[in-house]
Write a structure and sequence with these properties.
Bound molecules: glutamic acid, zinc ion
CATH superfamily of the largest domain: HUPs
Number of domains: 2
Strand order of the largest sheet: 3-4-7
Structural class: alpha/beta
Number of helices: 11
CATH topology of the largest domain: Rossmann fold
Distance between the termini: 45 Å
Largest sheet: 3 strands, antiparallel
Strand content: 5-15%
Number of strands: 11
Length: 322
């Protein structure tokens, strides 16, 4: 790839950032900083009912506490701005017009229950049921006859097997139309859905590398189809296995409090947490306090040992606070 790499940290202000988010952010930061790239911070606040007041500011504080920085974001001007998704809706609107004109999307009036009743079981972990195609016979212009607010826009998935190369040269593939099905690009209230917004933003901001959790693997295939529809080159995608609790399930509230803000309040040094994360990734041989900057020299994706989920259990928690 020519020029400097551009990456992004993209927290969702739907709750507090926890140890799992920190591990992914650390890798995204190391990957870009190691190559003198440009790092952006974008707030993904489209999930309005779940967005919590103050969570965006808290996420920025958490990232700073970890010792991570960025070149532009809501707190630092940059040509790529605005850096908050709810301020970028004009571009999402243009995208929908473009997709409608090309008949790549159609209005879908199904409710969640309709879909759950008609759908078969999901093929993919972390995914809901595959949309059964109930409204796929409609064309984009059929939306004119529908009451605004009663339909979402769904992307008509493209056929065939889709592949891309992930971290450490692993090829991943998916028959998107069969395995995932047509997906929502705008919700019934007219606002853009995550899949559309993230592609529009990453492209507009010149992002060349996306580092994120494994839970978004299926979304990557959907996003590849959007890149193709807009005629754009997709970025490099690198997925990082999730952090799980002692029971092997994705880290959540029931595993106890692993919010970064809590460790900060307990007086845990961020270098301790970074050290634990770096050790879990195979970047240092022994667990010890270290800063993200001190890890730069040794960072290399080939060294990253993250082939399966990492357990952050009661023992790891005790090692941090003890
Ligand atoms: N905002 C998403 C999250 O916090 C990340 C989306 C992405 O990296 O594409 O999980
Ligand atoms: Zn439908």
């Amino acid at each position: 790839m020519s020029g400097h790499p551009v990456g992004r940290l993209a927290p969702s202000p739907t709750g507090a950032q926890h140890v799992g988010n920190a591990r992914t952010f650390l890798l995204a930061w190391l990957s870009i900083r190691r190559r003198d790239g440009r790092l952006l911070l974008r707030i993904e606040d489209l999930d309005s009912p779940r967005t919590k007041r103050g969570a965006a500011a808290q996420a920025l504080d958490d990232l700073r506490w970890l010792g991570l920085d960025w070149d532009a974001g809501p707190d630092r001007p940059g040509v790529e701005g605005p850096f908050v998704q709810t301020e970028r809706s004009e571009d999402y609107r243009r995208a929908l017009d473009e997709l409608a004109a090309a008949e790549r999307i159609y209005p879908c009036t199904c409710s969640r229950t309709d879909i759950a009743d008609a759908a078969s079981a999901p093929h993919w972990e972390h995914e809901g049921p595959r949309y059964p195609g109930t409204c796929a016979g409609r064309s984009a212009s059929d939306a004119r006859a529908l009451e605004p607010g009663t339909f979402a826009w769904r992307f008509r998935t493209l056929p065939g097997e889709w592949s891309y190369r992930d971290r450490n040269d692993e090829w991943r593939s998916c028959r998107v139309a069969d395995e995932l099905g047509d997906f929502v690009v705008a919700k019934k209230d007219g606002t853009a859905a995550y899949q559309l917004a993230v592609v529009r933003d990453d492209h507009a901001m010149g992002v060349t590398e996306v580092v994120r959790g494994d839970d978004l693997l299926a979304s990557t295939f959907r996003q590849l189809q959007l890149y193709r529809s807009f005629g754009w080159e997709p970025p490099t995608f690198r997925h990082v296995p999730l952090v799980v609790g002692d029971d092997g399930k994705r880290l959540a509230k029931r595993h106890g409090d692993t919010r970064l803000a809590t460790y900060r309040e307990l007086g845990v040094a961020p270098e301790r947490l970074i050290g634990l994360l770096a050790w879990s990734l195979g970047l240092i041989d022994e667990e010890r306090a270290i800063t993200p900057r001190e890890l730069l020299d040794r960072f290399d994706w080939q060294r990253v040992r993250a082939t399966g989920p990492w357990v952050f259990g009661a023992d790891e928690h005790r090692r941090l606070v003890g």
